[in-house]
């Protein structure tokens, strides 16, 4: 086997093309291996529109970046024909090693997709020596192609959550298939209002699904989400997932702490100890802070006790038992919230909780698990890391799909 035959094996099936020559340029700081492909002038090529075999009309030279040859950059060079089809006229023929309009081989693009799932795109750009904007074009091309083929005919339960590429910027609403154990993201769209449900309903119907098939929607207590779900999916029951109930009160506790700390010196370690549940391990400083808050009768301690009482509700076995415990919880919280200067955030959280009590108790009859939505937090963190530095809404959504959508075949095709 000579060198050209060996290089041809590395390119995969390229018939009727063959490796004609190769050269290694070591004069630059990064060496470049150029592999020249050729084809017999008598060869016939399929029309890129209808597939009819046609004679070449003329040839023009093109180059594509391929996977590195050891430490050297590798380029593929070939004179690509334009074919003359009796029905469609003159068009450039497709080549088997690259997609139309791309400056990269298919194997190079596959490697880019695999790397971008595991590390920031900026790092992949550094490794490959390709500008990041070109890499993003590769990613978005394959993501769009894969998402267009997704089948949603068996979607019966959906979960909805929102995130941002960074605090307060570029909000994106993500819809997940609650019955799918892995790679459950099925749709992501800019914004966080009820218009996101309009967009999802349209997408669902375009991909074989139906809003009438959706039995249950799991989401947070956002008025926009509630309104969107009720209007666009009137036949679906709405369940508020418990993760967001805990999140609502946890944020309220932290807000009480911040308000109170402006007027009273709170013990060191207060911030982190109140954000942890009672079952979590605490440092000695945090244990002391929690005891001191209670001994001093701080309002932050009262807010913490209300949040922790949610665990008692969570332990209910039935919907009726949960409803009974919620009423007891409301009485308990009302007593602790009486005569407080800084407890307004907790009062607001309790009001929201009461407003959506029916949707909250639905979880005791829900057939869906909260694990999908809880797992989205780790997904969002991974996406922010991969898209670091390029957090416009389109690249952020593309990375959500690449990491979390059921489209693994684009990585192995």
Protein topology:
Layout: H1 3-11, E1 18-25, E2 32-38, E3 45-46, E4 53-54, E5 56-69, E6 72-85, E7 89-92, H2 106-116, H3 121-128, H4 132-148, E8 157-166, E9 169-177, E10 185-190, H5 195-206, E11 216-219, H6 223-232, E12 237-240, H7 242-261, H8 270-275, H9 284-295, H10 299-314, H11 319-337, H12 344-355, H13 357-361, H14 371-386, H15 393-404, H16 409-412
Parallel strand pairs: 2-6, 8-11, 11-12
Antiparallel strand pairs: 1-2, 3-4, 5-6, 6-7, 8-9, 9-10
Helix pairs in contact: 4-15, 5-6, 7-10, 7-12, 10-11, 11-12, 14-15
| The CATH C-level class name of the largest domain | Alpha Beta
CATH topology name of the largest domain, in short, is Nucleotidyltransferase, domain 5
Task: Please give the largest β-sheet.
Answer: 5 strands, mixed
Mean pLDDT: 88
What is the alpha-carbon Rg in Å? 29 Å
Oligomer state equals single chain
Poorly predicted segments:
none
Strand content: 15-25%
CATH superfamily of the largest domain: Ribonuclease H-like superfamily/Ribonuclease H
Percent of residues in helices: 40-55%
Structural class: alpha/beta
Query: Total domains, how many?
Result: 3
Spatial shape: elongated
CATH architecture term of the largest domain: 2-Layer Sandwich
Distance between the termini: 28 Å
Number of helices: 16
Strand runs, count: 12
H/E order of the elements?
A: HEEEEEEEHHHEEEHEHEHHHHHHHHHH
Kindly describe this structure.
The chain is α/β, with parallel strands linked by helices and 413 residues long. It folds into three domains: 1-101, no CATH class; 104-241 and 370-413, Ribonuclease H-like superfamily/Ribonuclease H (Nucleotidyltransferase, domain 5), CATH 3.30.420; 242-364. 46% of the residues lie in helices and 20% in strands. It has helices at residues 3-11, 106-116, 121-128, 132-148, 195-206, 223-232, 242-261, 270-275, 284-295, 299-314, 319-337, 344-355, 357-361, 371-386, 393-404, 409-412; strands spanning 18-25, 32-38, 45-46, 53-54, 56-69, 72-85, 89-92, 157-166, 169-177, 185-190, 216-219, 237-240. Strands 1, 2, 5, 6 and 7 form a five-stranded mixed sheet that branches. The protein has a five-stranded mixed sheet with strand order 10-9-8-11-12, sandwiched between helices. A hairpin with a 2-residue loop joins strand 8 and strand 9 (169-177). It is elongated, with a radius of gyration of 29 Å.
